[in-house]
Amino acid sequence: MEVAYGLVSYTLAKLFLLSRLSKKDNAQRSKKMEDKALEVYDVIRTIRDPEKPNTLEDLEVVSESCVEVQEIGAEEYLIVIKFTPTVPHCSLATLIGLCLQVKLQRCLPYKHKLEIYISEGTHSTEEDINKQINDKERVAAAMENPNLREIVEQCVIEPDD
């Protein structure tokens, strides 16, 4: 009987220890994802609006809370961005999504998958635009257009600090 109590006590102690280690690992993983999200935000916040001299951060098109990062493999991440156009009928929402795609593809040093969406309910044609900005072939075709490419380059160029 004493041996049984000893085994139960030992097993419970191990389970408790593993539970604490698991919580610590989850906290570390969560902190790592928050840090990655801030890194992504630092890349996109300086993108300029195609029509105005302001950045997307200035216009509150993007914010820290609009970026979510999830680990999907060893040093591979899913980045989900939900941006908010300034008006529900913004004609440049697709161009803003394109700028987000281009800048992140160029600037992020690790392997990632991007999903960029318009925040739900903030644009009159959000479904169509979401399909366009997440279609690699359409993004590549858009960047082949010299006029469009020039506009994107002006929007994503790093500001002189």
UniProtKB/TrEMBL annotation:
Belongs to the MIP18 family. Residues 39-104 form the MIP18 family-like domain. The keyword Nucleus does not apply. PANTHER family: CYTOSOLIC IRON-SULFUR ASSEMBLY COMPONENT 2A (PTHR12377:SF2), CYTOSOLIC IRON-SULFUR ASSEMBLY COMPONENT 2B-RELATED (PTHR12377). The keyword Magnesium does not apply. This is FA96A protein. It holds the Pfam family FeS_assembly_P. It comes from the Eukaryota. Keywords: Chromosome partition.
